[in-house]
Design brief:
The chain is α+β, with helices and mostly antiparallel strands. The chain has helices spanning 18-31, 40-43, 59-62, 72-82, 108-116, 189-192, 277-285, and strands at 6-11, 35-39, 52-54, 65-70, 89-93, 120-125, 128-134, 137-144, 147-151, 159-165, 168-175, 177-181, 204-210, 220-223, 228-232, 241-244, 247-251, 257-262, 267-272. The protein is globular and about 65 Å long.
């Protein structure tokens, strides 16, 4: 059982109820005599509490647990800063779906109490690293917990590219782009584009074409350790963009190679003790309830 003594708090400005939940957390954790660190942005939301503050990227070196108050987007933003030191994170849902933020605001005290008492499960969720090669020169771009997306940017036009997996040619394609998603991201943008739902335990990546100009181009699931290489067509007149978890990180040009690989360090995601991925899907996606049999 991990013993958490120094807790980092992150809250997203503008989310309904975030400040109220942060104040409840500060009071609850303070009553337990735990040390608390706020990232600077969160500190501006609850000024006057006199808590230690730091840059978000420094939380992992100061804390042994980070609590995120917000939606899945808030968790995505925090994840990339936590993986280096393997600091576990847990989320209190103040967003909409909340696949990554499990604890409901009304259950804050009971949910966090269980975690502090060691009553929780922990999952390793892998991220993707992205690198661009332009004229043979590599350049790191960013990391993504959900997905890496190649898309045309502002122009509503198709782009052309070639796809290789482990240096083996897969196809050339004309489409609105390509989503490269982890199992974590399979319930996000990739799902809306027609991709499959993948269990978080899978070591796999799904490649989902966006409105391909061919009915034969379907979502493709490959091994999580594969190297995915996307080559922007040499004749491409547009400058498509590369996004990591919805944030534009790079504007590509004709001939650029986009390399996507599994990040060495995973995110340690904490869940309440009785968490079930299938139950989360039932709740978030409106799956049907189990039928009650007379002999049950």
């Amino acid at each position: 059982m991990a013993e958490f003594k120094k807790i980092g708090l992150v809250g997203r400005p503008g989310h309904s109820g975030v400040v109220e939940t942060l104040n409840r957390l500060l009071s609850f954790l303070g009553d337990r005599k735990l040390s608390i660190v706020l990232d600077e942005q969160t500190g501006s939301l609850v000024s006057g509490h006199g808590q230690e503050q730091c840059r978000r990227e420094d939380l992992s070196s100061l804390c042994d647990l980070v609590i995120v108050v917000g939606g899945d987007g808030s968790m995505l933003n925090v994840a990339k800063h936590m993986v280096k030191e393997q600091v576990p994170v847990i989320g209190i849902n103040r967003g909409r779906l909340g696949f990554l933020t499990d604890i409901l605001p009304d259950e804050l005290e009971s949910g966090i109490s269980e975690v502090l008492e060691g009553k929780y499960s922990i999952e390793s969720r892998f991220l993707l690293d992205v690198e661009i090669r332009r004229e043979g020169k590599p350049q790191p771009v960013g990391s993504a917990l959900n997905d890496v997306v190649l898309h045309p940017g502002k122009a509503a036009q198709m782009i052309e590219f070639e796809l290789f997996v482990d240096d083996k040619f897969v196809y050339s394609q004309e489409s609105d782009g390509l989503i490269v998603a982890t199992p974590t991201g399979s319930t996000a943008y990739a799902l809306s584009a027609g991709g499959p739902i993948m269990h978080p335990d899978l070591n796999a990546v799904v490649l989902v074409p966006m409105y391909p100009h061919s009915l034969g181009n379907r979502p493709l699931v490959v091994g999580g350790d594969a190297e995915i290489r996307i080559v922007v067509s040499a004749q491409e007149s547009l400058e498509p963009q590369v996004s990591c978890d919805g944030e534009v990180m790079y504007t590509a040009k004709a001939g650029d190679e986009i390399l996507v690989t599994k990040k060495a360090s995973p995110l340690q995601l904490i869940h309440p003790q009785h968490y079930s991925f299938y139950q989360a899907c039932q709740s978030k996606l409106g799956w049907g309830n189990r039928l009650v049999r007379l002999d049950d």
